[in-house]
Amino acid sequence: YSRITLRERPRAAVDPKLDGSGTFSLEREVPMPRDDEVQDGEAVVKVEWVSIDPAMRGWLNPTRSYVPPVAIGAPMRAAGVGRIVRLAKGEKAAGKFQVGDWVVGTLDWNEYSKVPVKELQKIQIDKDISPTYYLGALGMTGQTAYWGLHDVGKIKSGETVVVSGAAGAVGSLACQLAKLHGCRVVAIAGGPDKCRWLRDEVGIETVLDYKDKDFKNKFREIGYIDVVFDNVGGSMLDMCLARLKKGARVALCGAISAYNDPSPEGLKMYLNLISQRAKIEGFIVFDYADRYHIAAEEIARHIRAGKLQLRETHLHGLDQCVNGLVGLFEGANTGKMLVKIGDD
Ligand code: NDP
């Protein structure tokens, strides 16, 4: 089978070439694990879909973070969904998992992954719930939007919530969950197509295109802000800080404008945090693991009630994973970026 491993750490943007000169290597003809290599506690999973996340760029840096960096030569870490094709003997007897089960877990950029079953979670699929949702709304994406809004942003009905990166996976859910909570949402995204989708299909009333030459003026017209859900960082965050209301909360979810840039543009407006007695707080979704069920139940209820627009951008084939990652930094996705591995 094939897999993608880390070849060298990029200094700025990822180099997508897979010919042995880029950031990653495509390894073909990796032997399938033999039966005696699948130990008790392990399963072999055929990977069906992998998630492409901006955070992956950070996992390539040899710096202190919330997870260790991916090692040189190791398969690229990625969340995935797939089906169990083989189980160790003891696992078969225990009967918790069966061959054919759909599961979600850290499956990496692999066509097949050998993983400890304790790191897998069985997933339920039905007419309303696609397996890909477990990498998006029913996975880390949904959890991030939910806890960033409720626990960090402490949103209240009627408040003005600004979401940057609003047409992306986390951003588009954050907009919708805030709206369903009764907030006035201001969505910021790049380009007319994404803005049209947010306005006409997602139903967000105030949508601003940051690539529009009039953006700064239009941004000032929205008035003052109670909650910022920031996915972008840099000058976009700075603009939001300039417009904080007294007691505002700024949830620092991500800073995609800074991930490829070792010396990002500095913030100028942070003194407004003082004058407006506002709070700025970073968060990592993993810290909510013991409460994931709360968000998952609420989001699943909204999905079944047809209240969420869950858009996905699909690429096809393992060799497209790297292009998917590079594409996130070029705005190539609307909604969740995913790669289908193997045949459809
Ligand atoms: P997205 O689907 O939002 O994908 C990236 C999008 O970001 C692009 O489509 C593009 O949209 C936008 N973008 C890229 N570069 C820039 C730039 N320089 N300036 C402005 N916008 C840019 O990814 P996710 O939804 O998966 O992640 C969103 C954010 O949330 C990321 O920062 C990520 O790191 C963070 N995150 C944080 C977590 C946590 O626990 N704190 C967990 C998960 C994600 P456009 O065309 O509009 O520019």
Give a structural overview.
The strands form three sheets. Strands 3, 4, 5, 6, 7, 14 and 15 form a seven-stranded mixed sheet that branches. A six-stranded parallel sheet has the order 10-9-8-11-12-13, with helices on both faces. The chain is built from ten helices and 15 strands. Helix content is 25%, strand content 24%. The longest helix is centred in the middle third of the chain and has 13 residues, at 140-152. It has helices spanning 55-59, 89-94, 140-152, 169-180, 192-202, 215-221, 234-241, 272-275, 292-304, 321-328, and strands spanning 3-6, 24-27, 42-51, 79-87, 102-106, 112-116, 121-122, 160-164, 184-189, 206-209, 225-230, 244-252, 279-282, 312-316, 336-340. Bound molecules: NADPH dihydro-nicotinamide-adenine-dinucleotide phosphate. NADPH dihydro-nicotinamide-adenine-dinucleotide phosphate binds next to helix 3 and helix 4.
